[in-house]
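The passage that follows is intended for readers who have already worked through the single-chain material. We present the inputs for a multi-component assembly, then the predicted structure in tokenized form, and finally a short commentary. You are encouraged to pause after the input and sketch how you expect the pieces to fit together before reading on.
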Amino acid sequence: MSDAAGRWALEIDGLDVHYGRVHALRGLTLTVGEGEIIALLGNNGAGKTSTLATVSGVVRSTGGTVRAFGRDITKAKPWEIVGAGLVHVPEGRRIFSRLTVHENLQLGGYLVSDKTVVSRRIDEVYTLLPRLAERRNQHGGNLSGGEQQMLAVGRALVAKPKLLMLDEPSMGLAPLVVAQIMKLIRQINADGTSVLLVEQNARAALKIAHRAYVVENGVITLQGPARELARDSRVVEAYLGA
Amino acid sequence: MTQLLWNGLFVGSFYALVALGYTMVYGIIRLLNFAHGDLYMLGAFVGFGVLSVAGGLATGLGFVALLIVMVIAMLVTGTAGLVLERVAYRPLRGAPRLSVLITAVGASFALEYGMRLAAGPNPEVYPVRLAGDPVNLLGARITVQQASLILIAILLMAGLQWLVMGTETGRAMRAISQDPTAALYMGINVDAVIARTFFIGSALAGAAGVMAGGYYGKIDFLMGFIIGLKAFTAAVIGGIGNIKGAMLGGLALGLLESFGTAWVGGQWRDVFAFGFLIVFLTLRPTGILGERVTERV
Ligand SMILES: Nc1ncnc2c1ncn2[C@@H]1O[C@H](COP(=O)(O)OP(=O)(O)OP(=O)(O)O)[C@@H](O)[C@H]1O
Ligand SMILES: [Mg+2]
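Having made your guess, compare it with the prediction:
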């Protein structure tokens, strides 16, 4: 959690997002403490991706503020936000399919000026995810879904994030692969990275999260420690199935 | 025969240089930059200006001097490309394609008639005709300057290939071309990389303009129009958006014209080029190295 000085990795306060006339986020508020894993749960169209895209500066908010590590990033450019240590693994992985696995990883370190540091981090990713090392010269598009998700996470790690934001990393993956991904996220968190995990797979996410939020129609409707939410009847009914 | 080959390679290499800029810009933001040929025209005029001022050197122009003229022309056209992108195209990013296309046509007219105001409507005679003393090489007569220019063109293309495939900037360009939003998530300053692409592509067109001025001996403010169409043809033949394809397409077009006109007469040159485009597109719509369009994520 936040330390004595009250340090938050991320503070989203009253965030509003409009797409034309669609009011997608309506005063959404959430926080991620340093060292925490926070799950953000919600159904299709609830506003999960919009939240992450707005934090990343790719979607512009129409109201509210976003602060990261004490700094106001509401109006910062996407590359400034990555530079501040907030790295986003987007929905659908968005691997560069006609670049090799290795090139995808190199792009993760785009903002790191010392390229020897980048190649060292890529080696670490290869050690952590040996499947990627075997496929380093293959095009990203040739990987399986699970491997692509590993690559997307590995690519983010090359940027050495202070806050890692993942948008539905379990989407379309077999349960065994989902378990691997969740284990990987927990491991990344144990190494000191704060995590904001967007999921529809509430069961998997609540297992590794410290706290969780539920978003509906662009506003947070439930929040609390993950263990409590996992028992909450409203969550069980809506998101964990009977 | 060897002479025809040389002429084809020479003309083909500046078609290729112009086609490269066309294809790079299309590759990265899916924009058909109709003003691209006019940057080539600008390059020819800048080269003309520098050569006129420098004077004297005319016939004995060495490799180094030619290189300097080219570098100046490339810097000026590159900067013009930057301005064009910033003023005309960036504000329209995300706008409907037709609006952008119309803007590009407008930018083309602006450059053409701007140059007409600046330099007058009459053709200028290039102060250097790459005449020199022809050397006999494998039965073809070529001058040292011609050979130098081909060498420069080859170096430029090799340099570009290295830039795109082997550097961080090139990787960023390829990433943006595949998925601009994902490129933002990597922390790539997409605007800056697109601007750099325009600079490089426009500079290559400027280099080709100097080459063309020296080769044809005459330049005028509308010279960019037809070459723009031909570079577009070359880029499409090679598979639009594909760097190697543009080089191949340019060379293929140059050779085709050289041999074609030798067999059926010079007045058929452009008929040849565009007839070939039509036949080619019917047979292979994606170009020599073109990728299937559906491959975009
Ligand atoms: N680019 C866009 N243009 C218009 N409306 C959009 C756009 N992106 C999202 N929306 C709308 O905003 C709302 C929130 O969408 P968002 O993608 O944030 O939901 P989500 O929680 O990520 O859903 P999912 O689980 O399906 O990914 C939805 O009503 C959606 O239709
Ligand atoms: Mg989503």
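Commentary: Strands of chain B lie at 124-125, 134-137, 140-143, 218-219. DSSP finds eleven helices and four strands in chain B. How closely did your sketch match?
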